[in-house]
Amino acid sequence: MKKRRVALLGILLVTLMAAASAVSAIRRQNAPRATVDLHTEPAAGAIIPGETLVQTDLRVLDANGQPVPGAQIALHLDTPPRPKILTTDFPYVEGTTLLEFAVDTSNGEMQFETIYPIRGIYTFETHVTLPDGTTLDAAPKLSVTENPAEARNFLLFAAILLGFGLLSGLVIGRGYRAALPLALVTALWFVSSVTYAHGPDEHDAPGRTRPITVTNTEGSLHAVLTVAPGSGRVGTLNTIKVRLINPNGTPTDGEVTLQIWQLEDEIPMYTFHLPVLRGEAGLQVQFFDGAKHDIRVEARSADGRTTTVHTPIAVESFSPPLELKVRVAGLLVSVVALGLFVGLWLGTRSRPFFGGRVLPEHRLTW
Residue 203: what are its φ and ψ, rounded to 5°? Predict the structure, then answer.
């Protein structure tokens, strides 16, 4: 009897071990072979939209958290969608594509520097091809908060408008009704002078559809830089290509460092490190700041030869669209109206005193 129990317990134990092994194998089979990790310097909380140059790393990691050498990474990055209430500093950039490019990595890492133009959540749509041919799609996110100075300035401006409405309401509520038209006209003028500083669809640079092509030769390395179209336009992409050529006309491999500088303030907007395969490297990028830019390329061939090439490019900018101006104006006017109604309510509950005497009530009609 005891032997039979021991045998049954042994069979049960073997069965449980086999089941656990099968579950573990299924979990390993279903676990992702690789993941995409997003890292920024500085961290997300320290990024100021439109100002901070951010080093961004996308890393392909295996199941053990180690980089996957030889992985190809293709990136599509859109800006955050248009906010429902308050617009950002670059309305025409909202919900557009910021950049697109792909690299064959040697260390499983895609690295670039950029200024993220507006607040919101950026989704890095990545398509990864592993060395064995399998593919992976991932979408890590980066949350960029509003510039603290921008938020503080808006709150201060709103407080001024609220105080103006409150004071106007107190004056009108205590009998000076003739002040109402003056208060409304002053408030509307003040709001319109802020929100309608530029006319709708005003632009700074004429469009240029034909591509820009510039060349330079240093020593035995010839570089060709092409930008299409030949001018930037806020909200749209430009295609930038660099070709490296030997003296005999054959393409050569290597690498390029491509920088895009905004010339008005002389600040870098983008920096890319791109491998040159079969003699060519390229990407698509948006010029989101409506000012003249300069595209600068430092190229190095696989055998150590170097050359540089650059070209300026005009960028067509636009003032905020009329729809957004009306929305912002309506919001600011509502702040004045709120203060006005509160002031009217407070003003009608009491009478003004001066020197202990009740001042006569003014009942001017308008």
Answer: -130, 160
Tokens linked to 125 = 């749509």
Distance of CA 36 to the CA centre of its chain: 20
Structure tokens at 77: 């990055």
Which pTM does this prediction carry? 0.74
- Judge whether 291 and 262 are in contact, CB under 8 Å: yes
| CA 356 to chain CA mean position, Å | 61
- pLDDT category at 191 given cuts 50, 70, 90 is low
pLDDT value of position 286: 96
Does residue 229 contact residue 212 with C-beta atoms inside 8 Å? no
- 360 secondary structure, DSSP code: P
In whole angstroms, how far apart are CA 254 and each of 33, 100, 130? Answer: 30, 21, 22
Distance from C-alpha of 326 to C-alpha of 337, rounded to nearest angstrom: 16
Listed residue (245, 293, 236) closest to 269, CA to CA: 293
Q: Which two tokens stand for residue 6?
A: 């021991």
The CA distance from 287 to 98, in Å, is 8
Angle CA(142)–CA(148)–CA(150) in degrees, nearest 5?
105
Look at residue 105 and give its three-state secondary structure.
coil
Whole-number Å distance between alpha carbons of 80 and 91: 11
Q: At 186, list the tokens.
A: 């002053």
Mean of the per-residue pLDDT values for the chain?
A: 79
- Per-residue CA distances from 311 to 34, 122, 152, 185, 362 (Å): 40, 29, 39, 50, 70
Helix (H, G, I), strand (E, B) or coil at 38: strand
Residue type, 284: Q
**CB-CB contact of 339 with 161 (8 Å):** yes
Rounded distance, CA 43 to CA 38, Å? Answer: 11
Rounded to whole angstroms, how far apart are CA atoms 180 and 174?
12
Mean pLDDT of 146-156: 75
Taking residues 174-184, report their average pLDDT. Answer: 57
Mean pLDDT of 57-78: 93
Give the separation between CA 40 and CA 59, rounded to whole angstroms. 11
Joined together, the tokens standing for residue 364 give 């001017």
